[in-house]
TrEMBL record:
The keyword Transferase applies. InterPro entries: AGP_Transferase (IPR051678), Aminoglycoside_PTrfase (IPR002575), Kinase-like_dom_sf (IPR011009). This is Phosphotransferase. PANTHER family: AMINOGLYCOSIDE PHOSPHOTRANSFERASE-RELATED-RELATED (PTHR21310), BIFUNCTIONAL AAC_APH (PTHR21310:SF42). The keyword RNA-binding does not apply. GO terms for molecular function: transferase activity. Residues 31-265 form the Aminoglycoside phosphotransferase domain.
C-alpha cells in the first residue's frame, strides 16, 4: 500500500538484506509484517524485536530523534515506551535511516481491549502530565523537535482551509463541514498559547496506545516527538469514548480556551487526514471520520 509520492518500498527481502549487512546475528530470525502507519512500515523480528522503516526521507528524520531522546525520557514515565536497540544506517538495500526496538506486547486501545474507559482516560492524563513535566534536558523547539502541532493554530490556517475545500469536493462525504469549519475559525480567534513549553508525544491516537489487562501499558511511535505548547497533545481524546474523554479533561484540569484549541487541532488533523488519504488509506480515513463525527 503506497501512501506518498516519494515513498520507498520495502518487503521482507529488503529487511533480510539490511540485517545481513548490519546485524548478521539477527539475519536468520523469523520476520513477519507487524503493521504499517502513515509514516513507517513495521516488521516483527523474532520474539523480542521490532523493525521500523520510514516510508519517506522526511519520515526518516525522526529516527535519530528517537534514538537520542527515548532512552532519556523512559525513566521519567509511568508506562513503557519504545526502547531502541539498533540505529540502522542507509544502504544499497534501503536508502534511509531505520531502527530496531524491543518488542512490546499489548493490544491497541479499543472496545476489545479497554475494560474501563473513564479509568483509561485518567491513566492517559497521568501519563501526559508526567511527560509534560519531564525536564527538557537542553532540548529546544527547533529542527526535528519543532513539530507543527506544538505551535499555534494560525500558522496552519492556509493549508487546513485547503483541506476543508478538498473535503467539500468528495461526493457523499457525511460530515458537517460547515460546523467543523466554524469551530476551526472560532479557535483561530482565541489567544495564541503561551507559557512553558514541554515535551510532546504529538500523536496520542489509540493505535499508539497499547493495553494489557484492560489498562494502559505502553505509548509507542514517538516520530512526532517535539518541544512546544501542549494544546494539540489533547486532540486525540476525541478518538476515545465520551467517558474517557471526560475523565481525561477532569484529570488534566483544562480550561475552556485550551479545550477549544485542542478541539481545533483534532479537527485539523481529521480534515487533513480525510483529504490526503481518501483514495489510499481507507482505515485511516475511517478513524479521522469517527473523530470528526465525535466532535459534531
Amino acid at each position: 500500500m503506497t501512501l506518498h509520492e516519494n515513498e520507498i518500498g520495502v518487503d521482507e527481502a529488503v529487511v533480510r538484506s539490511l540485517l545481513r549487512e548490519q546485524r548478521p546475528e539477527w539475519a536468520d530470525l523469523p520476520v513477519s509484517p507487524a503493521g504499517a502507519g502513515t509514516d513507517n512500515t513495521m516488521y516483527r523480528l523474532g520474539s523480542h524485536l521490532l523493525i521500523r522503516l520510514p516510508r519517506t526521507p522526511d519520515n526518516a528524520k525522526a529516527v535519530q530523534k528517537e534514538q537520542t531522546w527515548l532512552p532519556r525520557l523512559a525513566p521519567h514515565l509511568p508506562c513503557r515506551i519504545p526502547e531502541p536497540v539498533h540505529a540502522g544506517t542507509p544502504s544499497s538495500a534501503f536508502p534511509l535511516a531505520w531502527s530496531v526496538y524491543r518488542w512490546i506486547d499489548g493490544d491497541e486501545a479499543g472496545p476489545g481491549s479497554v475494560t474501563d474507559w473513564p479509568a483509561f482516560g485518567a491513566d492517559l492524563a497521568a501519563t501526559v502530565q508526567r511527560l509534560h513535566s519531564v525536564p527538557l534536558m537542553g532540548a529546544v523547539r527547533q529542527g526535528g523537535l519543532s513539530w507543527y502541532r506544538g505551535g499555534g493554530l494560525g500558522a496552519c490556517d492556509r493549508w487546513i482551509s485547503e483541506y476543508f475545500d478538498t473535503c467539500g469536493t468528495i461526493p457523499g462525504l457525511d460530515l458537517d463541514l460547515a460546523y467543523l469549519r466554524h469551530l476551526w475559525r472560532s479557535a483561530l480567534a482565541l489567544p495564541e498559547p503561551s507559557g512553558r513549553q514541554v515535551w510532546l508525544h504529538g500523536d496520542l491516537k489509540p493505535t499508539n496506545l497499547l493495553v494489557q489487562q484492560g489498562k494502559l501499558h505502553a505509548v509507542i511511535d514517538f516520530g512526532c516527538l517535539s518541544v512546544g505548547f501542549p494544546d494539540a497533545e489533547h486532540a486525540p481524546v476525541w478518538d476515545l469514548p465520551p467517558g474517557a474523554r471526560q475523565a481525561y479533561w477532569d484529570a488534566m484540569s483544562l480550561d475552556d480556551v485550551t479545550w477549544s484549541r485542542a478541539r481545533a487541532w483534532a479537527i485539523a488533523v481529521g480534515v487533513s487526514g480525510v483529504a490526503y488519504y481518501w483514495d489510499t488509506y481507507p482505515a485511516f480515513v475511517g478513524a479521522c471520520l469517527s473523530r470528526l463525527r465525535a466532535i459534531t
